[in-house]
Design brief:
Layout (H helix, E strand, L loop, with lengths): L1 H23 L4 H8 L18 E4 L21 H9 L2 E8 L2 E7 L9 E2 L3 H15 L24 H5 L17 H7 L3 H5 L16 H15 L3 H10 L8 E4 L14 E3 L1 H12 L3 E2 L2 E2 L3 H7 L15 E3 L6 E6 L3 E6 L4 E7 L12 H16 L2
Antiparallel strand pairs: 1-5, 2-3, 2-12, 4-6, 5-6, 7-8, 9-10, 10-11, 11-12
């Protein structure tokens, strides 16, 4: 018994030393990550982890505008392949909007029409939309305005707000999702997010090539807040949530209760019906029910590739030519999608726990399955 007690004693000492070492070295946030993820039965961030973080609340619109229900609502069943994919990847919401009416809708795993789930990187597209609004409102001059106008440490970099939106900043952000000591983990679990972001340096020439970095969007959000002198969640509410008639309240994760900086590169909690509204807004070139909320030129630029060698990305939006269609996509890391095919007046929303396997193409396999199978379903309804 004594050897066992001695072992336990030394194990506890080692644990205490390790914990103290993490805090002293500035990596104490890793303990929060372990608690949020591994001690709750997960291996990575998940769609309902917002309950372990501080959040800003975004109220529902005082003038809610429900989606019309299509005359053929839910008449067609999911194809066998779609049903199997939804089951395998843990889909919690699948929504098809045709001609601005809900044509197909199904929820799983206890989730429903009003359930909030983590947007993950879909928030990047929404933050980019707020950039467009800030330009419309005169707070930011244009996509070409230097970031150095807002943060002097970047004055000599040549980096613009458009470079942040189009993922062409040249910043030294490390987009690693598996390194607990990396920037992405720190941004997600640590406090004082601005401190992490403002340590970034421009190490490549901005505006030259596409390189996907979450730090770009976070710095962009900080620029928008500085330009507007408004919290990003408040600006989102007045710019889009209220006038577009969002039916449900939302939440946006923040870094800590004191700084209250939203994690703009991720972590907006909403539902499939409300996320779909951003697809409709961009499908209709920034117009919502007859009112121009975003400049149409900005919208077109957003859903057009900036760089010929990277046709998969515009300004804040992913792009695809699958099936010969011009598709733009709002997407998150676990297979969160708002897929928009303007020429067919079609919006597909998928929320869930996992994404499909990598393909060597800009999108994982599940994206192509969702689009393909929805078109098969639509054909059945003709």
């Amino acid at each position: 018994m004594k050897p066992f007690l001695k072992f336990v004693k030394w194990l506890l000492i080692l644990l205490i030393v390790a914990v103290l070492g993490l805090y002293i070295s500035g990596y104490g946030y890793i303990l929060k990550g372990v608690w949020v993820v591994y001690l709750h039965g997960h291996t990575t961030a998940y769609i309902d982890d917002f309950k372990f973080f501080e959040n800003e609340k975004i109220p529902a619109s005082t003038n809610p505008q429900p989606w019309p229900i299509h005359k053929d609502y839910n008449i067609v069943e999911a194809t066998k392949t779609l049903a199997e994919t939804n089951d395998t990847l843990g889909t919690v919401a699948f929504l098809v909007i045709k001609n601005d009416s809900i044509w197909y809708e199904k929820y799983f795993d206890g989730f429903g029409k009003s359930s909030q789930t983590n947007s993950f990187s879909m928030a990047k597209s929404i933050t980019s939309a707020l950039l467009g609004k800030a330009i419309d409102d005169g707070f930011i001059e244009s996509l070409d305005q230097p970031v150095g106008d807002f943060y002097p440490q970047y004055a000599e970099s040549g980096m613009t707000v458009g470079d942040l939106s189009s993922m062409a900043s040249g910043l030294d952000w490390d987009e690693s999702y598996s390194n607990p000591f990396g920037m992405t983990a720190r941004a997600y679990y640590d406090d004082d997010l601005a401190e992490t972001i403002l340590k970034l340096e421009v190490v490549e020439k901005p505006g030259v090539r596409f390189k996907y970095l979450s730090g770009n969007t976070q710095l962009l959000a900080m620029v928008i807040q500085k330009a507007t002198q408004k919290q990003l969640a408040d600006y989102l509410y007045e710019s889009f949530w209220q006038p577009m008639g969002f039916e449900q309240p939302a939440i946006w994760q923040i870094d800590d209760d004191e700084s209250r900086l939203v994690k703009a590169y991720c972590c907006l909690g909403s539902n499939a019906r409300d996320f779909a509204r951003f697809g409709k807004l961009y499908k209709d070139y920034g117009k919502w029910n007859g009112k121009q909320l975003l400049d149409s030129t900005f919208v077109v630029k957003s859903i057009t590739p900036r760089f010929a060698e990277s046709p998969e990305y515009g300004y804040g939006f992913w792009l695809s030519d699958f099936k010969g269609k011009k598709i733009f996509v709002i997407r998150g890391i676990l297979g969160q999608y708002v897929i928009v095919v303007p020429e067919d007046d079609l919006i597909i929303v998928r929320l869930g726990h996992q994404r499909g396997g990598k393909t060597g193409m800009p999108f994982s396999l599940d994206f192509y399955v969702y689009v393909d199978e929805v078109y098969k379903m639509l054909t059945q309804n003709q």
